[in-house]
Amino acid sequence: MSGSSRGIEIVRQQEQGALSITVGGESVSSQGQPFDVQLSKQQSYVYLAIDCSGSMNGYKLEQAKQGIVDFATDALKNGYSVGLIGFASDARLVCEPVGNIQALLHGIKSLRIGGSTNMVKAIKMAHSNLKRLEGTRVIVMATDGMPDNSAATLKTALQAKEDGIDFIAIGTDDANQEFLGKLATKQGLAVKVSSDMFAQAIASASSLLPSPRGIVKR
């Protein structure tokens, strides 16, 4: 007999009374003997890094803002704290990860257009803030084009991924699918859509977030 829910799997083994429990990839087994297990979730954090370069002016920025609201609403329900970074020629920490949508709304409204596409600074900022935290950590990049320096961007993203931070990439218009695929942790976490679907793509990225990793205490 087995059952699973958001990364928890319970399996009754063939041995009489034997039971194994897997949470977030870590397993314990009773081997037919009584045992005490406490299950808990780690904290989960995600930064949305939103392109605010000049080409995002108008409709696309409004699409991005709506997508952020919908993404955050869903991510918060699933146990994530959500932070926001806006980037153009520089990067700006709009909001550190928070646990309620009201704290994000003012920051979302404050996003402004202007400048080039310095993804490196945005990723470095998110990486620096996330590496101090324990738990499931994710960066979601949303952009309508290519960065100022593609090679440096991929190198910076790789450093974050090597620290155990997952990466989701959402692109539209002049974004390059191959580049998005290299940016993301894996191909399934890279999506390119038309500009009229940008809000929906950002919102739907919440379904790509990994389940909060579990802790098994014996």
Description of the molecule:
- This protein has 218 residues and is α/β, with parallel strands linked by helices.
- It folds into 2 domains: 2-35; 44-208, Rossmann fold, CATH 3.40.50.410.
- 31% of the residues lie in helices and 32% in strands.
- It is built from 6 helices and 12 strands.
- The protein has helices at residues 59-77, 101-109, 119-130, 150-162, 177-183, 198-204; strands at 2-5, 8-12, 19-23, 26-29, 38-41, 44-51, 80-87, 91-98, 136-143, 166-172, 190-193, 214-217.
- Strands 8-7-6-9-10-11 form a 6-stranded mixed sheet, with helices on both faces. It has a 4-stranded antiparallel sheet with strand order 1-2-3-4, with no helix packed on it.
- Strand 2 (8-12) and strand 3 (19-23) form a beta hairpin.
- Helix 3 runs parallel beside helix 4 (150-162).
- The radius of gyration is 19 Å and the shape is globular.
- The model is unreliable at 1-6 (pLDDT under 50).
